[in-house]
Amino acid sequence: MIDFINLYLVPGLTIGSVYALGAVGISMIFGILRFAHFAHGDLMTIGGYGVLTAVWFIPIHPLLLLPFGIALAIVSALAVDQFFYKPLRKLPTIYTVIASFGVALIFRSLAQLFWNSGNQVFTSGVRMPVVLFDTFRISELHMQVISLTLVIAIALHFFLTRSKLGRAMRAVSDEPELAAVAGLDTEKVVRWTWVIGASMAAIAGVFAGMDTSMHPNLGWNLLLAMFAAAVLGGIGKPMGAIAGGLIIGIAEETATFTWFSDEPFISPSYKSAVAFFIMVALLLFRPQGLFKGRLL
Questions:
Q1: Rg of the chain taking only CA atoms, in angstroms
Q2: In DSSP terms, which residues pair with 214 in a beta bridge?
Q3: Terminal Cα-to-Cα distance of the chain (whole angstroms)
Q4: Alpha carbon distance 150, 144 (integer Å)
């Protein structure tokens, strides 16, 4: 049981936190702008590189430099919305989806141009785990990721339920035409959707890069799992996306545990397939997701 917690459950919560934060933006963008943003993973990468660049000039803990990555991701998201997505909003959704693939390639190419295509790390050296109660050996980074994700989830919940802007965002997501007739500033809601989604993506990109390494394909490699998390939680339901991300992350890691024999239940090489199995099964039996989100 101790090995299960140290080696499977905590890493599952950690990668699940990355999926959760990335899935929030995907879910909100689909809920309000009505299209699947396939450049969201690469937006994560841009945010991660923003913090990596700041670390080169200010050698302190990367998490203290998160504002640099968040700012870069927000500027990038607002720019592509203004110049690429906004002119396509009155056209069928497929045009915007295809445009998002193009934006993803642009982001990835820019990452390779400015930061090269190799693996880069935020900090070098061996990171010793923290020992709790003389039993649990948990990485300090994993503790930070899980704790910060919990804080962000609580803050997001209060923002969406208690603030005027949060309620406006929920109204536009539920009934955009009615919200416009009621006098809500839908363009302001769209801008803040990008701001929040890009911020979450940047934080997720930094978490993922610190846990492994930064490279131009980092966000793209995580994109489908984040989509699975968004679908699992319910499209258009940010808190559902967080729950879906944690479930997907835990399922992926614990699927490789030796449940019934001395061999892993699923080879670690195939654990990413767990996310897609869950997504397909959910689409077949409960397409609206766990939190009854918008149907695709």
A1: 19
A2: 120
A3: 39
A4: 10
* CATH classification number, 2-115+139-285, choose in 3.30.70, 3.90.1530, 1.10.10, 1.10.3470: 1.10.3470
Site of tokens 């993922």: 208
62-98: pLDDT as tens digits? 999 999 999 999 999 999 999 999 999 889 999 999 9
pTM (2 d.p.): 0.91
- Compute CA distances 70 → 93, 177, 190, 259, 275, whole Å: 27, 31, 17, 40, 27
CA dist., res. 296 & res. 288, Å (int): 8
242-260: pLDDT as tens digits: 999 999 999 888 888 776 6
Domain-wise residue ranges, the chain: 2-115+139-285
| Cβ 49 vs Cβ 111: under 8 Å | yes
In the chain, the amino acid numbered 189 is V
Read off the amino acid at residue 262: D
Distance of CA 269 to the CA centre of its chain: 22
The answer for residues whose C-beta is within 8 angstroms of residue 276's C-beta and 6 or more apart is 224, 228
Q: How far apart are CA 153 and CA 139, in angstroms?
A: 21
Return the sign of the alpha-carbon dihedral for residues 167, 69, 78, 224: negative
